[in-house]
Predict the 3D structure of the following.
Amino acid sequence: MTAKHNVGIENDDDGEGDDDESDEYVRTTIQFTSTLPMEIVMPDGGCSLTDKIVVRSRTADVEEMSGNDDDFTFGRKESTTEKTLTKMPFLFGQVPDTFELRKGHKIGIAVFRTCEITHEDAEAPPYVELTKVYGQQHQACIYTGTVTEMSANGKAFLHDVNTFEGCSGAVVFLLDQNQPSDVTDTLHGLAVGIHSGGVDDRNNYAFKLPTAVAES
């Protein structure tokens, strides 16, 4: 799964304007450090982002903070055990339906980047040493932070993980340190959401995983 805005709709390949079956799907490509690029089909990814979700309502002191609703898409479940995507190092489990994500939970995302990061990408002041915050290029890094706010309907949340442009679609998971008492050892490392993007220099936007994902 990834952020829906990361994938594009597959157009007809033959140029004849007819609707091929493949046009009903959205395709993207992923690659792990040990694999060749792999095409992934996201059958539900062509849905338009039409609804708005309000994370923070407007008050006399603050502006409304809102974004597109449901910015995540799911590929077909892969159960063939010999495939790369089903190997344990590449998989995240999901928190049980009974777990309630809330402000104060410690979260992280894992990012492997092949690109250089600029201060503009990170919206960081020029004096910030980017490698200390984001790690080295060509290696996996875990960026950490805290859930800072939940939307009124519980579908989205804000967080302060040190992200940069290009991190959208990363799985948000629970860390194993400095958690409130409701995050037990069995929940460490389990997925709770999908990072969608930055809102401003202090806030990032993410979606809580729906319970249906566990059955899809």
